[in-house]
Design brief:
The protein is mainly alpha-helical. The chain has one domain (about 25-115): Arc Repressor Mutant, subunit A (Orthogonal Bundle). About 60% of the residues lie in helices and about 5% in strands. It contains five helices and two strands; from the N terminus they run ααααββα. Strands 1-2 form a two-stranded antiparallel ribbon. A hairpin with a 5-residue loop joins strand 1 and strand 2 (about 80-85). Helix 2 crosses helix 3 (about 45-50) and helix 3 packs across helix 4 (about 55-70). It is elongated, with a radius of gyration of 18 Å. The model has no long low-confidence stretch (mean pLDDT about 90). One of its GO terms (molecular function) is DNA-binding transcription factor activity.
Length: about 120
């Protein structure tokens, strides 16, 4: 019985534009790259901290910016990168929504699990 009460839901969230045919545009991977840029001051350092090639990180960010229609990063060549106000706002909205979804999913799951086990 202890094993079943240790179960927890995992929620994977992504942001997309309504009516888009490209699917998700901003998910955990892009969010992690943006967090890395915020923390390390460059996309290159963010990619390295994730064990990702810079070329892949650059392609992901470029493709995301194209799909969204606005830049996520201010690039300053050798001086690194920072998040644009739009990038910062989207990242914060994503993180807060993700946190709330995880909290809600855990609550609903636990309530239903205990109810189905008769442990109100």
């Amino acid at each position: 019985m202890e094993q079943i009460t240790n179960l927890r839901p995992i929620v994977r969230m992504a942001i997309t534009c309504e009516g888009s045919s490209t699917g998700s545009m901003f998910g955990r991977g892009v969010a992690d790259l943006c967090l890395g840029v915020r923390e390390h001051g460059s996309l290159n350092a963010a990619a390295k901290s994730m064990g990702m090639a810079y070329s892949k990180a650059w392609r992901i960010v470029r493709d995301t910016e194209t799909a969204l229609g606005f830049p996520l990063l201010n690039r300053d060549g050798a001086h690194g990168s920072t998040l644009t106000p739009e990038g910062e706002g989207l990242l914060e909205a994503y993180l807060e929504t993700d946190r709330k979804l995880h909290d809600l999913a855990a609550q609903v799951f636990e309530e239903h699990l205990f109810r189905s086990l008769g442990k109100n």
